[in-house]
Amino acid sequence: MQRTAIATTTAIHSAEVWNAKTKETASRRDSWEPIIPSQSLSKDTQHGSATFQKTTTTSGSGFHDQKTLWEQELYRYHPSGWLLVRVGSLIGFPYLMSLVGSHVWPRVVDAAHYWDVETSTIALPAIAIMSMTAFFTHNALYGLIYRYACPSKLFDQYRVDDKPWHWETDPEGWNQMLRNTMGLILFNFLGLTFPLMALNYYFYGTPLRLDVQSLPGGKEMLWQLLFCLVMEDFGFHHAHQLLHTKQFYWIHKIHHRYHAPIAVSAAYAHPLEYMFGNLLPSVLGPLLLQNRMHAWSFCIWLMFRASAAVENHSGYEFPWSMYQAIPFKAPTEYHDFHHNRNQGTYSGVLRLWDMIYGTNTHYFEWVNQGRPERRSRKTNKGTKKES
Q1: CB count in 10 Å sphere of residue 68
Q2: What angle do CA 337, 341, 345 make, to 5 degrees?
Q3: CB 307, CB 135: distance < 8 Å
Q4: Which helix (DSSP H) or strand (DSSP E) does residue 197 occupy?
Q5: SS3 for 209?
Q6: For residue range 99-137, what is the model confidence (pLDDT) as tens digits?
Q7: Three-state secondary structure along 294-357?
Q8: Could you tell me how far CA 304 lies from the centroid of its own chain?
Q9: Structure pTM?
Q10: How far apart are the C-alpha atoms of 327 and 336, rounded to whole Å?
């Protein structure tokens, strides 16, 4: 434990050193900076909100927020070829995973019988490994896009911003930041997930179903995925907003070192944030469902949520993604706006609680103004090309 603690401290300290170093080279770090200059941000915005309260809105802004929200929701389901793809993928996903489970889960149970241990002894570590595999696999796919598609501008039409990528503005600094990022992520995954899972099982056991006979069908898995998503959004939003208070922002500021997030930054967080801001909200739904949920559904839920987090931080919004078919799903630019401005939009996949608390007013104002910073950058690019 002492070695892992030292390793974590070293990774965080290295990232801080790198972050301080890059501040000296402002001309090379454009993509790392917030869109709004720090001078124009209030002290509370830069260092976390002073209180846990609803954002103040100007007169009539609530109406415009709702109008923009419904316009975005209507556009989400605008008839097109991609609409059929993403809706079909979202509905078909649990049915496909149910079929996969009918082949995978019996082997998990057989392995437990072979080793003469309880099924949960094999199942719970397997679930953790599969969720981590989903995270790294999805990141590998985005890695290919960053490596090969970015230079060719193949998917530029789906980017949520047109600023240069981190590795384009500061290759040396980016390599160091990537090493620190992977070190902290691996510590969180391996040094926290497995021990916490073992402690939870030792004291409380597992309320989830583990047998083969009650494996979930597609319909059961679909409604449970949506239920877990709603409950996770409740937990994530409130934990996230709490982390933006002055008392706790010192924890969350590690994640905000990525002012322009990429896929791998989804899990880049202080260990305390990883435990209470990421893991805890993810298990709220399963804890409420108890034995109405099968362990295989729990596994698919964790994979589903991990992939959604990667996509939210990717910098891309692909129209064929099944996540885009989820009602009230926050677009990728929604969370990108949060990282750029460090202001409001606290929700993760959904944005229900942001609407309830009014903590996305600044985002809707930005959208209603035509995304001015992005427009000005495109204008500047056009001027440079003409000259």
Answers
A1: 16
A2: 50
A3: yes
A4: helix 194-204
A5: strand
A6: 999 999 999 999 999 999 999 999 999 999 999 999 999
A7: EHHHHHHHHHHHHHHHHHHCCCECCCCCHHHHCCCECCHHHHHHHHHHCCCCCCCCECHHHHHH
A8: 11
A9: 0.81
A10: 19
Residues facing 242 on adjacent strands? none
User: Dihedrals φ, ψ of 260, to 5°?
Assistant: -120, 95
Q: Which two tokens stand for residue 248?
A: 């706790």
What are the angstrom distances between the C-alpha of 334 and each of 26, 161, 338, 364?
Answer: 25, 11, 7, 9
For residue 244, which of 343, 366, 326, 354 has the smallest C-alpha distance? 343
Which SS3 state, helix, strand or coil, does residue 87 take?
helix
Residue 345 φ/ψ region, left for φ over 0, alpha for ψ in the -120 to 50 degree band, beta for the rest: left
What's the CA gap between 302 and 308, in Å, rounded? 10
Q: 266 with 209: CB under 8 angstroms?
A: no
Element holding 218 (H helix, E strand): helix 218-243
Residue type, 289: L
List pLDDT tens digits, range 6-46: 455 555 454 454 444 444 433 333 333 333 333 333 333 34
Contacts of residue 282, Cβ cutoff 8 Å, sequence gap at least 6: 228, 232, 235, 301, 302, 305
Question: Whose structure tokens read 């996540």?
Answer: 323
